[in-house]
Amino acid sequence: MNPATEPKKRIKEGFIGQKLIVLPPNIKRNIARNPLIKNFYLTAIGHYPKASLHGIERKTGCNEYILIYCIEGKGDISISGVQYNIDPNTYLIIPRNVPHKYRSSTSNPWSIYWVHFSGDLAQFIYNRSLLNDQPHVHTVPYDENRIKQFQQICYILEHSYNEKEMEILNIHLLHFISSLIYYKEINPALYDNDIVSQSIAYMKKNIAMKFTIEDLALQQRISISHYSRIFKQKTGASPINYFNQLKIQKSCQYLYFTDSNIKEICALLGFDDPYYFSRLFTKLMGVSPSAYKKKHKK
Question: Does the global pTM surpass 0.70?
């Protein structure tokens, strides 16, 4: 890499197909004054495919955070003497101003995407990557859209340093890094496998049913008290209230996309009493079902 802070030791740099872009100092100064992006911005970016013999050591660290995202091959990163093994589809963020070194495997060289970033929010983004307040190597599923996002950032940098281009590329940068740090939250269906998530999925699948708290707890094979407690801890609502919220959300779709009347919607959602449905809808949505339909219906 060739970031703003010059490394103490460079083993090798220069690989077939590599991409490396470092922002000029005057452009970084302009970004640091831009209220839209000054809190989180890129200073250098690159892609090193099959980077044989690549390695860098910074004995005093770097004054920016460094994201290393590996999609192929292997390598290792040492931070303050602690070594982290890097495998395909993993990433790690190196904290700023901390001694570190990293190198590609000689037998199976890594292909990495890397970014140097800074700004007042950079530390908070970095903190989200920690595990028990320590740097951590995260495994993430490969996502082609993530790579396209990275390539779009590079494309913009290669064509212009104008103010608007700097704004949009740094917005892209936050999205790119967020796709790594928040990959589980972005794809909850793939990673939420706890009892509450399973119960919510069951509710959505059976939105037209009428369930009691006993029914829902039995479906998860746990006691009512335990089920109620863990459900409220995760969602902030009781299971029945949450189920009713799902029903009201679904009723909004019926009101907007169909010509069904209130009685028909009640039947579709398991409400026996249209008046109870209307009161519940008004309480949650702030308007009556008929007023909502009049306001939002195409």
Answer: no
